[in-house]
């Protein structure tokens, strides 16, 4: 049951409607693939799995990445695992159930790309994300336009030595 971007996006929206949850899929899946390609990402960390759409998009990168994705909603993690497996990218994605802060505190590997796709960017996670990012890695933050914490979050990241490129509703941050 291999889905393309549009079909997986439609599936995600259908789940959101039926479940009544806040798991809204990123509007432009090809853009996520392009960002992963620009970063030459072979290792990706995603905070905010929902039903796996973003992880699916990252898995389409030409750099054959492995994606660790975290969500606190156990049902979403299980749906994501099933969908990603059915779409043929299950071996590229590890979907983890848990609280972002608790899970990433246990990680000791480095990531080429970190994608914060949670409800609101959380500045309290940035010290850990900074440690998990490769020296030439990027941190991509979504949901800027509706977030009450985006300005503080981006300011904290800038104070930590990261510069931002804003593309519509996302920030792509690189070490300066």
Topology:
Blueprint: H1 5-19, H2 29-38, E1 43-47, H3 53-59, E2 66-71, H4 74-86, E3 93-97, H5 100-104, E4 111-116, H6 126-132, E5 133-141, H7 150-159, E6 162-167, E7 170-175
Helix pairs in contact: 2-3
What does this protein structure show overall?
- The chain is 38% helix and 24% strand.
- Helix 6 (126-132) links the parallel strand 4 and strand 5 (133-141).
- The chain has a single domain (5-175), classed as 3-Layer(aba) Sandwich (Rossmann fold).
- It has 7 helices and 7 strands; from the N terminus they run H-H-E-H-E-H-E-H-E-H-E-H-E-E.
- The radius of gyration is 15 Å and the shape is globular.
- It is an alpha/beta fold.
Keywords:
7 strands, alpha/beta, single chain, seven-stranded mixed beta sheet, 176 residues, Rossmann fold
Averaging pLDDT over every residue, what do you get? 90
Beta-strand content bin: 15-25%
Number of helices: 7
How many DSSP E strands?
A: 7
Helix percent reads 25-40%
The CATH architecture category equals 3-Layer(aba) Sandwich
Strand count, sense and barrel status of the largest sheet are:
7 strands, mixed
Structural class: alpha/beta
Q: N- to C-terminal separation?
A: 43 Å
CATH topology: Rossmann fold
- Give the name of the CATH superfamily: Vaccinia Virus protein VP39
Number of domains: 1
What is the CATH class name?
A: Alpha Beta
Q: Uncertain runs with pLDDT below 50, 5 residues or more? A: none
Strand order of the largest sheet: 3-2-1-4-5-7-6
- Strand-and-helix sequence, N→C? HHEHEHEHEHEHEE
What overall form do the CA principal axes indicate?
globular
Radius of gyration, CA atoms, in whole angstroms: 15 Å
């Amino acid at each position: 049951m291999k889905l393309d971007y549009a079909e997986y996006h439609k599936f995600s929206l259908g789940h959101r409607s039926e479940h009544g949850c806040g798991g809204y899929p990123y509007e432009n899946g090809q853009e996520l693939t392009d960002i992963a390609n620009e970063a030459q990402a072979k290792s990706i960390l995603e905070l905010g799995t929902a039903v796996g759409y973003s992880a699916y998009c990252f898995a389409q990168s030409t750099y054959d990445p492995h994606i660790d994705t975290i969500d606190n909603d156990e049902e979403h993690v299980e749906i994501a695992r099933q969908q990603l497996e059915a779409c043929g990218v299950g071996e590229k994605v590890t979907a983890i159930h848990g609280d972002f802060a608790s899970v990433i505190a246990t990680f000791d590997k480095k990531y080429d790309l970190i994608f914060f796709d949670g409800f609101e960017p959380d500045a309290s996670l940035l010290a850990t994300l900074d440690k998990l990012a490769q020296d030439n890695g990027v941190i991509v933050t979504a949901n800027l336009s509706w977030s009450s914490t985006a300005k503080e979050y981006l300011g904290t990241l800038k104070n930590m030595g990261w510069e931002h490129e804003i593309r519509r509703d996302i920030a792509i941050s690189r070490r300066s």
